[in-house]
Amino acid sequence: MNLVRWQTAVDFLVLAVAFYILLGWARSARALRIALGVVGLHALALLARQFDLIITSWLLDFLAILAVLLLLLVFQPELRRFFMGLDSVFRSFPLARPVPLQHHREIATACFELAANYVGALIVIVQKDSVAELLEGGVSLGAEISSKLLKAIFQKDSPLHDGAVIVERDRISKANAVLPLTHRPDVPLLFGTRHRAAMGLAERCDALVVAVSEERGHVSLIKGKAIYQVETPAELAAAFEGDLSRERATAVTRIRRILTTNIGLKLGALGLALLIWSMSFLASGTTIRTISVPIEFRNVPGGMEIAQQSVDTIEIQVRGSPWIMDSVNLGNRIAQFNLGNLGPGWHQLTLVPATLDLPPGLVVDHSTPSKVSVRLTKAGTAGRG
């Protein structure tokens, strides 16, 4: 069996990436056991097919489908956020226009002036991920960013002071927006609803969220699951800009980050891919199909030509699983023989798996004939003697 086909490598890589995405989503959605159960049921179904346990394989496939439907029904919000993340990946080329530096300073100034007066505030700075699906309500503004406007919005006599202000690119897009609350069990006791809402949004996307406490007069920056206490406007503006600098990392840095993060998850995905790939292709099949394939000679030496050959086609019996045979177009197989470095005269060529370029899971049981004879002569002498 030829295991170095580029198609084989691509198939395995795609399978491993698919498992990595599935495991990553399942871990974030706390559905890892169900996802592993689906993979296990599918693996058992493949094993049952190898032993011709038809009813058992149907039942296991049915249970796997039920488990997938359970994932779709129970984890709809998590799936929605996953596809939002995919959308943000595609929209990140080219990267969206970031919030200008002077607007970072305006936001930082407003936050600390509000904190000095013990006025609560919640400001979301959108990055690559869309937050539209995570918000409820809100009043569209489309206003220019300024510290005076932000302070006016969060004054207690303002009709928009409740909820969050959403900053997208260089505009205040919404005010009075309601954010999802966090479900984390480790929320500090001193955090109220405002901070819980900031954490709830930050852990679902890549937005930067600033929460100003009206009780303590503190300014907190929430990014992902990290919470930072900020002391000065300059520190907050620098934190905004520092996050953008990380987003503008070079291609080499991004590749290194991709390769070095979530090592355990990547190894798990590779292990599952190897398990499913092996059970799908390496076990011997029970179906034999006979095909007739034409012969093709490659790398005919320069100055040489083919004078005679014993046959034009070969009858081949291929063994494998029926679903693999049905997935591969066996009708376009060609028996390719390499004539490189051969001299004039008769040569006997033996059929080997690489000759047919069969995918994993298919093997040659028998061929008629098993060898092909070919006579090479110097060009222009084929008709002589």
How would you describe what is shown here?
The chain is α+β, with helices and mostly antiparallel strands and 385 residues long. A hairpin with a 6-residue loop joins β5 and β6. The protein has helices spanning 6-28, 32-50, 54-74, 76-91, 101-116, 147-154, 193-202, 233-247, 251-260, 263-281, 322-327, 353-356; strands spanning 121-125, 136-144, 164-168, 171-178, 208-212, 219-223, 226-230, 287-298, 304-309, 313-320, 335-338, 345-350, 362-368, 371-378. The protein has 3 domains: 6-92 and 253-281, no CATH class; 101-247, YojJ-like (1, CATH 3.40.1700.10; 287-378, RNA Polymerase Alpha Subunit, Chain A, domain 2, CATH 2.170.120. A 7-stranded mixed sheet has the order 2-4-3-1-5-6-7, with helices on both faces. Strands 11-8-10-13 form a 4-stranded mixed sheet. Strands 9-14-12 form a 3-stranded antiparallel sheet, with no helix packed on it. α2 runs antiparallel to α3 (54-74) and α5 (101-116) packs parallel to α6. The two termini are 41 Å apart. It is elongated and about 100 Å long.
Tell me the name of the CATH homologous superfamily of the largest domain.
DNA integrity scanning protein, DisA, N-terminal domain
The domain count comes to 3
Q: What's the count of strands? A: 14
Spatial order of the strands in the main sheet?
2-4-3-1-5-6-7
> Roughly how many Å is the radius of gyration?
32 Å
In whole angstroms, the N-to-C terminal distance is 41 Å
The CATH topology of the largest domain: YojJ-like (1
